[in-house]
Specification:
alpha+beta; Heat Shock Protein 90; 30% helix; 10 helices; 3-stranded antiparallel β-sheet; 4-stranded antiparallel β-sheet; Actin, Chain A, domain 4; 3 domains; signal
Length: 394
């Protein structure tokens, strides 16, 4: 594949969550959690086990925040932890008359929550707190040393976050942000608990960020079952990160030659995970750089990796139908012409995919072919993205 320097050179010539487990979903007992909802299978699984209970309104209240007391109760039920003869934790704000006193006492005695003068039972559970109690309750081992944009290594929850990421309980709030102070909803907590309780619900591939330079991030991978070795893939992205960091350094030096606008020069690169499972991994990079002139330049690049056969794919490698290229071109031109009529911008008729075989990314239910500014239209038209069904090519 082209390195970043070659990519930038070609660019100059024309002058940027959820991962899912594989278990099927079925209708839940709650009207606010239909089978199509991303948490449906986990909510159903835990409800059938008696771990989760709905509200008095008959709904699950999926978007409501989880309190610390509720989290303790859910974990105790999930682990079937005995509440008999448990010592009084001595919290000032959790009297023995509290509806979740026994559950809180049992959870603290098990070491899932810390001891202190108060427990804050009605406080909303944060993602940092979720990481700690989930890692402890399910005795999750292993680490995934991530460089989160919004959480430094010194953060108290880092060791716990590394454990739950390594085990496929979460992949972060976004690809590069963990959001430690973010509040956990009931739907989210259901997913986290199901993944902690049963490996079948976990993410099969853990993806976590590493920082190559300021505003430069790249992904690393870990098979949560230990079946696949991602050493080659990880080394590839380490090298890509180094090249992107070098590009940023070169741009910094270039900025010194422009006393008027040099302080505006920048190069940023972040990524998103379009798909990550034991079949395919698809990563999309968003690039932005400015080197003077009227405007900066935003573009996409992507890599699509065949996990089973360990190689980076072209669109033709994904296709199994002999006439796939004509079908893709016709569909894209039809959509492009329609979008042009809707005021999206001028679309230049596409005749071949020859130069665009790498310009696609995969999702769980289809693939997206994209074109950067100037490739099939003007700069003002921006990036064109066309989502297509897998049935079109295979």
């Amino acid at each position: 594949m082209l390195g970043w320097k070659k990519w930038l050179a070609s660019l100059a010539g024309v002058l940027c969550v959820f991962s899912f487990s594989s278990l099927p979903a079925k209708a839940t007992a709650y009207p606010d959690v239909p089978a199509s909802h991303w948490s449906a299978k986990e909510v159903t699984y835990l409800s059938e086990r008696g771990v989760l209970k709905g509200g008095t309104n008959g709904r699950f209240n999926k978007d409501a925040p989880v309190t610390r007391a509720q989290a303790a109760a859910i974990l105790v039920r999930a682990k079937e932890l005995s509440m008999a003869n448990v010592p009084d934790p001595g919290f000032q704000d959790v009297p023995k008359s509290h509806p979740f006193y026994k559950e809180i006492a049992a959870a603290v005695h098990a070491g899932w929550f810390s001891t202190a003068q108060s427990f804050n039972p009605d406080g909303q559970l944060t993602r940092a707190e979720m990481a700690k109690i989930t890692a402890n309750a399910f005795d999750l081992q292993g680490t995934a040393s991530a460089d989160w944009e919004d959480m430094g290594k010194a953060h108290w929850s880092t060791p716990f976050v590394e454990r739950i990421v390594a085990n496929g309980v979460t992949s972060g709030y976004t690809a590069t942000k963990y959001r430690p102070a973010g509040v956990v909803t009931r739907a989210q907590f259901a997913v986290f608990i199901a993944r902690g309780l049963d490996p079948a619900y976990r993410l099969t591939v853990a993806v976590y960020p590493k920082k190559a330079a300021e505003d430069i991030f790249y992904p690393q991978f870990r098979d949560t079952s230990g079946q696949k070795d991602f050493q080659y893939l990880n080394e590839y992205y380490v090298n890509e990160g180094e090249e992107m960091a070098d590009t940023k350094k070169e741009l910094t030096e270039l900025a010194k030659e422009d006393p008027e606008r040099g302080h505006l020069y920048t190069y940023e690169a972040s990524y998103r995970v379009a798909r990550a499972d034991r079949s395919y991994i698809s990563i999309v990079f968003d690039h932005y750089y400015y080197t003077g002139g009227a405007h900066g330049y935003t573009s996409l690049s992507s890599q699509n990796y065949d996990v089973r056969n360990a190689f980076f794919m072209l669109l033709g490698d994904l296709a199994t139908k002999a006439d796939y290229e004509r079908k893709v071109i016709d569909r894209i031109n039809t959509q492009g012409a329609y979008l042009q009529k809707q005021g999206r911008g001028d679309w230049s008729h596409l005749y071949s995919l020859g130069g665009y075989q790498r310009q696609f990314y995969m999702t769980n239910d289809g693939f997206v072919v994209y074109f950067n500014p100037y490739q099939q239209g003007s700069y003002a038209a921006g990036i064109w993205e066309f989502k297509l069904p897998y049935s079109l090519i295979r």
